[in-house]
């Protein structure tokens, strides 16, 4: 009886191996190849210029895609092809609303004068008007690390300080996945962000805990697509070459 059972098990094992081998032999290389849909062709920009499918938000001359956070015309200055914060005039927001996106933006801190910490070259890039990537002079400028350049404000310090020198142009490439809200504004999933500063990864798929307030703890409140917001924090930070891609 024992021999019959062992023989039966051996027979079943052999049949399973043979069946698996036949299944493997039935696969063809093209069985795992995708041909549709074909990704659209996009022409890359050269030296940081916008790719062909990007929305150019500032090209050095035109502010038609922006308005003041107060609702009127932008009161910042265009100087030699750059967009300069005018302290006290308020921030600016895009007229168009965005969700998931890729954002390219370049900034330059003003001369530091006698200012230090959060008073030196401070501005902010607010994804969907409420999630801030910090803009700050990072050249020998001591401050709290979750508020330095490259940080997600008050939530995540950058992996490294990739800022070069005061007075030089700094380049941000930001990849943003917006939070999700479902039926009846029910929270479904948090926002996620990757930030590259001057070609160096400083935030790697960081999951946000909510908005980025100056005081208090972050939290999520339901919202849809919202404008990009650039902050007036009292210093003459300059911006240039701003473009965005919807994802």
UniProtKB/TrEMBL annotation:
Residues 1-21 form the signal peptide. Keywords: Signal. Gene3D superfamilies: Exo-inulinase, domain 1. The keyword Signal applies. InterPro entries: AL/BT2_dom. Residues 54-245 form the 3-keto-alpha-glucoside-1,2-lyase/3-keto-2-hydroxy-glucal hydratase domain. It comes from the Bacteria. Pfam families: 3keto-disac_hyd (PF06439). GO terms for molecular function: hydrolase activity. This is DUF1080 domain-containing protein. The lineage of its organism: Bacteria, Pseudomonadati, Bacteroidota, Bacteroidia, Marinilabiliales.
């Amino acid at each position: 009886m024992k021999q019959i059972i062992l023989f039966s098990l051996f027979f079943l094992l052999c049949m399973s191996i043979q069946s698996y081998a036949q299944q493997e032999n039935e696969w063809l290389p093209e069985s795992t190849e995708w041909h549709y849909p074909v990704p659209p062709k996009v022409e890359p920009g050269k030296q940081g210029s916008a790719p062909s499918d990007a929305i150019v938000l500032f090209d050095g001359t035109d502010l038609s895609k922006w308005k003041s956070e107060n609702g009127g015309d932008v009161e910042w200055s265009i100087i030699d092809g750059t967009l300069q914060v005018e302290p006290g005039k308020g921030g600016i927001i895009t007229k168009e609303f965005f969700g998931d996106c890729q954002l390219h933006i370049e900034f330059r801190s003003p001369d530091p004068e006698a200012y230090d910490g959060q008073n030196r070259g401070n501005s902010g890039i607010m994804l969907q008007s409420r999630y801030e990537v910090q803009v700050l002079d990072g050249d020998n400028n001591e401050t709290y690390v979750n508020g330095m350049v490259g940080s997600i404000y008050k939530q995540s310090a950058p992996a490294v300080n990739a800022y070069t020198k005061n007075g030089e142009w700094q380049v941000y490439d930001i990849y943003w996945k917006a939070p999700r809200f479902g039926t009846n504004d029910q929270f479904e999933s948090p926002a996620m962000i990757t930030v590259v500063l001057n070609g160096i990864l400083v935030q790697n798929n960081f999951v946000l805990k909510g908005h980025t307030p100056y005081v208090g703890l972050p939290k999520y409140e339901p919202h849809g697509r919202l404008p990009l917001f650039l902050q007036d924090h009292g210093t003459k930070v300059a911006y240039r070459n701003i473009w965005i891609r919807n994802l």
